[in-house]
Amino acid sequence: MALLVAQNVDSDLYGVTADSSQMLSFNNYTEEDTYNELNEISDQNLPKTEDERVSPTVSEQEPCQDGILDEESISSGLSNMGRTADGTEITFLHLTLPGYSLVDINILESYIYLQKLEVPYNKLTDLSVVSFMPFLVELDASHNEISKLLDFSPPQNLQEVDMSFNLIDEMGDLSAHHALTKLVLDKNYLSHISGIESCVALQHLSLAHNNIKKIQNIENLSLKYLNLRGNQVEKVENLSSLKYLQHLDLSGNNISSLQGVEGNRVMEILDFENNQIDDIDEIEHIKDLRLLRSLNLLRNPIQETADYRLSLLFRLPQLSELDRHRAEAEEKVSAVNLFSPPPEVIAAHDHRRCMVYSTLRAAKVHMSTLPNIETPYPILVLSGPLGAGKRVLAHRLVEEFGKYFGLGISHTTRSPLPAEMEGKDYKFVSPDDFDGILRKGDFLLTYQTSGHSYGVSLNAIETVAEQGLACVLPMEVEGVLSLKLAYFQPRYILLLPLDPKRQEERLQADGGLTSSQITYAVARTQLYQQTHQDKPGFFDRAIDTSDLENAYSQLSRLVMTYLGMESTGTESSGAELRDRSTPASRSSSHVESGSLPQSGSQRQGASSASSSVRTWSKPSGNPTLKQSSPGLQNQRTGSSRQMNSVEKASFERRKSAAKSAAAGIVPKPLEQLVDKPPGTAPGESQFDLGPNKPLRPKTVPSSLPYHDFYSTSPDSSVPSVASDSHLSNISEAGGISPSGSPISDEDGSRPASGISFASDKPALPPIINSPEQDNDPEY
């Protein structure tokens, strides 16, 4: 049963069924009475038998003979009972008549209270009957044969109209439809947009699959959704005034540029599928759309770009969907690592390449790794930006302390500066030669900065190690990151010019750099300062090199402190060498003492050696050598952290290889890349374990030098077993003697009974200021 409110009859309102056979008066009725009576009438019209319910009548199977709407079809399409617009009556508000092949619906003139009319998939050409429905809100007349848009007197609040798939070729003037919020005219014959300039409430406009060539006449509308899919648009234009636009669909057009969308700051969805966009730089036009979450560029030439998807996710990290596929977090990380990786990722990549190529060579025991497996070869790294003076200070340090240090010569692909010399400062090679050296496995580490490649070869370190000296390596911070992944355990000194004018003047005096290169070099100083601040322990010490003379004085004093050569009075109380902003670094620490007993034969053999032995720390039995820096604390105190997983894996692989080589077992080239537990050390019978000798294999000649530069920082630590290992001594002659050399007492009458070593380094290192800067708050 279906019920509609009819006209007033004798001042009483009546309810009438679709077939007018039953009347229901609403005068003096309560709402409950009304619903009860409506239900009774509905029960009377329900099928009584099972067959009647299952088998519809012939009229139900073929409604609306000759395409003319009848009451029976209306009764089957009515739904959503509710109050009329004025709130005084109860009636059906929705009428749905899809696929009835209707050509005439004039019978609906009396259904004035309808609020939603759906007549899709018919053959209608005229909708003038809508003029009799003043309360109509939604109209769906899609898939008909209508040629004129909204050709009827507008209802008071008509908001949503769907007239897609019709024969409309002109939009006409829609200014009378002031309440219109949604207009769908897909699949018509429209060639331009017009007539909606006054529809200020319009939020949804769909004109897909028409013949529109230009976006126009939509300025200053309140559009949130605009669909122009499948037209002939060649340029995105006239959208800047649509400040509420969130969804734009321009797929299936002839657009070659994304320019024109950049002004829509609240844009969330862009669909440009099947267009002519071919340049990856077009993404620059939409990179500032911070709310953009979905972008579709399928079937565009741009997809042929190498690493297309990662490139877009790198440029548009705000996307959650790209080309109809979810943008995963892993993809975004991969995009950053590919196009702008953090320095740590670059260092890991360079280290991996060097390791792979080096393991393809035949295994070899290097002077810088044996004979003492637990003690890394001594390296001093001077790091700082261009113009910091690290190379000048390295040369002076090697000249003054030539009995202890040798300079490691790195390779580079850049051209030499006027003050640089081949073989003394760098080995200058072409990019092809550099790549050839890398592929031969000769590099310990490589890094890139300022568009040039740098590399430190194992041969550069071995050349210094064969002389029994510690290696000094000047390098940029990128090289430090790579070296920290290797098996060496250097000391890292940061050389930082805090006065940019001094640094700039120094670079200009050196010559060979353009003004832009100098500006870039000065700006890179901030990178070193930020690294020193954000990564405590990354550098062991920091020195201001604005004044090179003062900087070298501080550097030499620091090295002498490490060697145990400095008097207590010149140490300047240790606290001045620490970061005054770090309370933890102000606490004093002490060097733990220990003795290394020596047998009589050892003392006798060492009596002919020099009596003035310098080491990284103070000998416990010799009062003539001063107390080491308070920051040098034994590793047993726990001030140094353990290795991270990458460092530990590298260290263990090298340790295992060294033990195997010492036992006469040569590992295969690729075995060192496999993460596995370190090999079992050879039995005791394979080593010479004298009562006072450090661990050394019998197969190593007694003349092979021991390297004694062992120390750790909070950032580059070694396994705790190394804290108990003894360090060999750097001899007066520049070699590293295989046993502890005697150290005389103050009167020179007797040798010391043993030597104490400090294997730890200070906590957070400060920038060592020049004396005149100590009270300056800027430093």
Write the layout of secondary structure elements.
Elements: E1 3-9, E2 12-17, E3 23-25, H1 31-45, H2 50-54, H3 58-61, H4 71-77, E4 78-83, E5 90-96, E6 116-118, E7 138-140, E8 160-162, E9 182-184, E10 204-206, E11 225-227, E12 247-249, E13 269-271, E14 294-296, H5 308-315, E15 321-322, E16 325-326, H6 329-339, H7 343-359, E17 379-383, H8 390-400, E18 405-407, E19 410-412, E20 426-428, H9 431-439, E21 443-449, E22 452-457, H10 458-465, E23 470-475, H11 477-483, E24 491-496, H12 500-510, H13 515-523, H14 525-534, E25 541-544, H15 548-563, H16 583-586, H17 600-606, H18 645-662, E26 767-768
Parallel strand pairs: 5-6, 6-7, 7-8, 8-9, 9-10, 10-11, 11-12, 12-13, 13-14, 14-15, 17-23, 17-24, 18-23, 19-20, 24-25, 25-26
Antiparallel strand pairs: 1-2, 2-3, 4-5, 15-16, 19-22, 21-22
Description:
The protein has 779 residues and is of the alpha/beta class. Among the domains are: 1-145, no CATH class; 218-340, Leucine-rich repeat, LRR (right-handed beta-alpha superhelix); 344-565, Rossmann fold (3-Layer(aba) Sandwich). It is 23% helix and 13% strand. The protein is built from 18 helices and 26 strands. The protein has a 13-stranded mixed sheet with strand order 4-5-6-7-8-9-10-11-12-13-14-15-16. Strands 18-23-17-24-25-26 form a six-stranded parallel sheet, sandwiched between helices. Strands 20-19-22-21 form a four-stranded mixed sheet, with helices on both faces. Helix 5 packs across helix 6 (329-339) and helix 12 (500-510) runs antiparallel to helix 13. The longest helix has 18 residues, at 645-662. The protein is elongated. The termini are far apart. Residues 1-31, 44-61, 567-641 and 668-779 have low confidence and may be disordered.
